Amino acid sequence: MKKIIIATKNKGKAKEFKELFAAYELEAISLNELDNIPDIEETGTTFKENAALKAEQIASLLSLPVIADDSGLMIDALDGRPGVYSARYAGEDKSDEANINKVLAELQSVPEEERTARFICVLAVTIPDSVTTYYTGYCHGKIAKAAVGDYGFGYDPIFIPDGYEQTMAQLTAEEKNAISHRRNAIKQLETNLKKQDLFLDNR
Ligand SMILES: O=c1[nH]c(=O)c2ncn([C@@H]3O[C@H](COP(=O)(O)OP(=O)(O)OP(=O)(O)O)[C@@H](O)[C@H]3O)c2[nH]1
Ligand SMILES: [Mg+2]
Questions:
Q1: Ligand 1 pocket by C-beta < 6 Å: which residues?
Q2: pTM of the full predicted structure?
Q3: Active site located where (predicted)?
Q4: CA-angle at 135, arms to 132 and 103, nearest 5°
Q5: Which sequence spans correspond to the domains of the chain?
């Protein structure tokens, strides 16, 4: 199988990329499988900036083509927060449970019809010595009153996608991968997957 590098250390994302790219007969390799990869500081104020920081720094370090994902949850009643700061919303230790509790507390008095939200995923694709390109996907829904479900990662236990009664964490991997922001961003990239020189085997 052709291999493609996904510049993430997030195990939940890495698992989903493996599943999503398998449909294109591509093997996604995450940074957890490579040695001596430093953490990239996410100093940007937009998803696009952070995706570019990760893709460009890892591509230059490895001298290989790289895809990075910067993603997060945007809640309308919180003016788009946690947004770019989704991973660290409740602190630097990136605890999913603490992040969820913080969001639920902030939304405690917000009624169901005002709990609208969306996940966003921005993919940055860097091929050494050429310009970085970007692909964006969304998944719309609303925030539940309590956390339910064991699948997925991050805020999945409190996110109810439009058209569903269950949270994202109650959906199987297959069901999430059919509707997720990550899936929708990869769809944008799809035609370019064929024409871009993205694969390790071509080097
Ligand atoms: O419930 C969720 N389902 C998802 O599908 C999802 N996708 C993103 N998120 C949240 O957004 C942060 C990304 O932040 P992020 O892009 O900086 O990634 P990260 O720091 O976790 O890893 P890396 O890819 O940078 O190595 C994550 O930690 C999560 O809190 C999600 N939550
Ligand atoms: Mg990060």
A1: 8-10, 13, 42, 69-73, 86-87, 99, 119, 152-156, 159, 180
A2: 0.96
A3: 70 (proton acceptor)
A4: 115
A5: 2-202
Tell me: ipTM over 0.85. yes
Candidate from 86, 99, 142, 164 with most ligand 1 atoms within 8 A of CB, to mutate = 86
CA distance 67 to 48: 12
So what's the architecture of 2-202 in CATH? Alpha-Beta Complex (3.90)
Report DSSP letters for the chain, one per residue. Answer: -EEEEE----HHHHHHHHHHHHTTTEEEEEGGGSSSPPPPP---SSHHHHHHHHHHHHHHHHTS-EEEEEEEEEEGGGTT-BGGGGGGTT-TT--HHHHHHHHHHHTTT--GGG-EEEEEEEEEEE-TTS--EEEEEEEEEEE-SS---SSSSTTGGGEEETT-SS-GGGS-HHHHHHH-HHHHHHHHHHHHHHHS---GGG-
pLDDT tens digits for range 11-49? 999 999 999 999 988 999 999 999 999 999 999 999 999
